[in-house]
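step 3/5: co-fold with S-adenosylmethionine
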Amino acid sequence: MEIESTSANLYIVATPIGNLADLSPRAIEVLQTVDVIAAEDTRHSGHLLQHYAIKTSTVSLHEHNEQQRSKVLLSRLQQGESVALISDAGTPLISDPGYRLVSLVREHNIKVVPVPGSCALIAALSASGLPSDKFSFEGFLPSKAGAKRQVLESLKNTSQTIIFYESPRRLRATLNEMLEVVGPDRLICLARELTKVHETIVTKPLSELVAWVESDSNQQRGECVLLVAGKIEQTDPGVIEVERVLSLLLDDLPMKKAAAITAQLLGTSKNKAYDLALKLKQT
Ligand code: SAM
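step 4/5: write C-alpha cells
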C-alpha cells in the first residue's frame, strides 16, 4: 500500500459501527501514523485501537469540549503535526462531533482528508429496498412528543426516502407517532444492529412493522435506523396499472411475492395488490 504523507493533515476517519473488521487498511495506517487521535470517548475507542495494536496517543473531543479542544488541535496542526478524528462509531460529524473542528481547520487552510468507511444510515439505505436515488437524513428526532410530531408533520409529504437515527428506548413511541402521521400503508424499514450478530433489516408497511415490533421485544433492543419511504404522489395507483404490473410479475413469481413487489413499486397496500392478484389468478 502506498504510504501517505500525514504531515499537518486533519484526517476524518470512519470506524466500525459494530463489526471490527470494517476498519479499512487505509484507516488503520492513518491511525498508526498520525501524531494524535482525537476521539469522542478515548476509553470506548481504546478497545478498537487495542484490537489493531494502534499505539498512537489519544485526546478527547466531544460535544462539551469541542470548541476549546479544536483550538488546541489547530495549534498542533499549525506546528506540523498530523491529527486523526474518530467518533465512537461510524463516520465522524454524522450525528457526531467534529463540525466545529473541521470548519476551524479549513478556515486556516489546513488540509482535511476524509478516510471513508462505515456509516449506519448509508449501510441501512443500501440494504433497505427503499428508493435510494434521493433521500433526506434527519438525524435524531426531538425527544419531546410535541416537537417530534411537528417534525414528522413537516416531513410527511416529502417524496424522497427519509432517514432517522433512533434510540431503542424511543423506538415504539416513534413508530406509533409515525403511524398516526403518515398512515398504515407507507413502507418503513427498521435496520437494527447493523454489522452485528443480531443484524435485522426489515421493510414493511408501517402498520405491519408496528405490530411486529410490539409483539417481539427483541426488535425493541439495540441501535437502529428508521427509513420511511417518500410519499408517492399517486398514492392510489389505478387498478389498471396495478393489474398490469401484477400480470407481468405473476408469470414468474408466486402470488404473495408478486403482490408485495407490486405494492412496493406502486406505493399501494400489499393487501389491495394481493386481492387483485387473487382475482387475476381466478380469471
Ligand atoms: N456517526 C455514526 C454513523 O456514521 O452512523 C452515527 C452516530 S449516532 C451518535 C448513533 C446512532 O447511529 C445510533 O443511535 C443509531 O441510530 C445509529 N447506529 C449506529 N450504529 C448502528 C448499528 N450498528 N446499527 C443500527 N444503527 C446504528
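step 5/5: annotate
Strands lie at 10-13, 36-39, 57-60, 83-86, 112-115, 135-140, 161-166, 187-192, 200-205, 224-228.
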